[in-house]
Amino acid sequence: MALHPYDLYDVRSQLSEEERAVQDAVARFTDERVLPIIGDAFDQGRFPKELVGEIAELGLLGATLPEDYGCAGLNAVSYGLICQELERGDSGLRSFVSVQSSLCMYPIHAYGSEEQRRRWLPDMAAGKVIGCFGLTEPHGGSDPANMKTFAKKDGGDWVINGGKMWITNGNLADIAVVWAQTDEGIQGFVVEKGMPGFAAQEIKHKMSLRASVTSALFFDNVRVPEANRLPNVKGLKGPLGCLTQARYGIAWGPIGAAIACLDEALNYSKERMLFGRPVAATQSAQIKLADMARRITLAQLLSLQLGRLKDAGKMQPQQVSLAKWNNCRMAIDIARECRDLLGGAGITTEHAAIRHALNLESVITYEGTETVHQLVIGRELTGINAF
Questions:
Q1: For residue range 128-175, what is the model confidence (pLDDT) as tens digits?
Q2: What is the dihedral of CA 369, 169, 31, 102, to 10 degrees?
Q3: Segment 64-113, tens digit of pLDDT
Q4: Residues of 131-156 as b/e, b for ≥16 C-beta within 10 angstroms?
Q5: Active site residue 367
Q6: CATH fourth-level superfamily of 237-382
Q7: Could you tell me the pTM of the whole model?
Q8: Active-site choice (18, 87, 367, 370)
Q9: Phi, psi (5° rounding) for residue 277?
Q10: Could you state, in order of their start, the residue ranges of all structural domains in the chain?
C-alpha cells in the first residue's frame, strides 16, 4: 500500500476514534467554508467574522474546558488537531480560536471565580462574547516583566492606566483579559468594551495575518470593579500559564500550514511541464518535496507526544518551547520552499504558499520568538539563564 503523502508514519492510527472524528469535522469545515473565501479575505485585510457562529457550533471555542460551562470537554490532542486543521486554512483563523480559547477562556476558568466562569464562559463558548488578551506592551516585547500598565486600588474598584500592543481580536473583542502591575504584583482584570477610558485601535498596513484583527489597546483611568479582577493568581505565573496553553496549540497549527503548502507544491509540480517533463520528475524537486515530508513527519510525532504528555498532566513549558520552535521553523521554511517551487505563480494569493509564508512570519514571532524558545532550551540544558 502507498503511504499517505502527508502522514508518512501513519500518525492518524495513533489517534482515538473521538480524536479522528474531531479532526475530520474541522477538516471538512476548513475545506468547505474556509478555503473558498480565505484568499480574498487575506487580500482585503478582513477577518471572516461570518464564520464565528459556525466555529462555535462545532465546539471549537474553549474546546478543552468542561461541559458545565457550555464547552466541549475535549482532550489536549483533539485541541491540537483543531489548531492543525484550522491553520491549514489560515493562521489568522487559528489565531482567533487560540486567543479566545487559551488566552481568554482559560484564565477565566483557571484563575477566575465561579461567578466569573458562569458569567462569561458559556457566552464565549457560543461565540456571543469575543475576548482578547492584553499582555504585550510596545516597549516590552519578549520581556513581560517590564510591564508599565498599572492598576491602582480605589475603594471597591481598580483604576487602570497604560497600553498594550499587537493584540489579536482587539477591535472585535467584547472583553479584554488585561494584565497589569499592582502594589501586590501583576494581576489580571476583565475589562469590558464600553468602559470609559478603554479604547482599541486596529493596526493597519500588515503584510502578515491579514485575515485577522490586530490592535493596540489604551487604558486612560479605566475604572474596573473588584468583581472583574481574577482572584486566584498573582505574579507573572498567571499570564505565563496562559501562554503555555496558547503555545501548545501553536505547536500543532503550523503543521497544517505546512501540509497545505506541500499539497499545493506537489500537485503543481506534477502538472507543470518544463523541458519536456513535469517539474516533479526532476531530482531537485523530489529532494525538496521529500525533505518537506520528512520535516512534517517529525513535527507530527513531536506534537502528538506533547499532546499525550499534556493529557497525562506531565507536560512541561520547556517541552512546549521545543515544539513551538521546531514546528514554526519547519513550517515557515516549507512555505518559502513551496513558494519557490511554484515559480512566478507562487507570488499571488491565488496560491496558498505566499499567504502561509507571510502569516508564519507572525506565528514564529508571537507567543515567544524563536530566539526566546531557543534560550529556554539552552537554559534547561546548561542551568544558566542567558536572557
A1: 999 999 999 988 777 888 899 999 999 999 999 999 999 999 999 999
A2: 60
A3: 999 999 999 999 999 999 999 999 999 999 999 999 999 999 999 999 99
A4: bbbbbbbeebeeebeebebebeeeee
A5: yes
A6: Butyryl-CoA Dehydrogenase, subunit A, domain 3 (1.20.140.10)
A7: 0.95
A8: 367
A9: -150, 160
A10: 11-125, 131-228, 237-382
